[in-house]
Amino acid sequence: MTPSETRFVILVRLGWELRGLAIGSVVTLPAEGEAVLLVQCPDGFRLSVLAAQHDDRWLIMWSPHGEMPAVRLDLAAREIAGVVAKHRVA
To answer: pLDDT band for position 72 (50/70/90)?
Structure first.
């Protein structure tokens, strides 16, 4: 599997984990460039989630400073859910 294919699979699996936490997401796959997972927050903010290879491992990264090894997508999904919760409409 190429790195681009691996990235796509990781992001789709993370999206599935988020779905289990009642959080919707979309994987965007541009004609040029790499896949990105977009998580829509209740207040309209769109959180971008990336998967990046670092040495021999993959990381999940999101703004502003979130980062977690991709081997624990369940934990990454819970961390991202915490970010989404901070964007609730008051």
So the answer is: very high
What the block records as the tokens of 17 is 């984990």
Q: 20-40 pLDDT, tens per residue?
A: 999 999 999 999 999 999 999
pTM of the shown model: 0.92
Which DSSP string do the residues of the chain spell out, in sequence order? Answer: --HHHHHHHHHHHHHHHHHTTT--EEEE--SSS--EEEEE-TTS-EEEEEEEEETTEEEEEETTTEEEEGGGHHHHHHHHHHHHHTT---
- Compute φ and ψ for 32, nearest 5 degrees: -125, 135
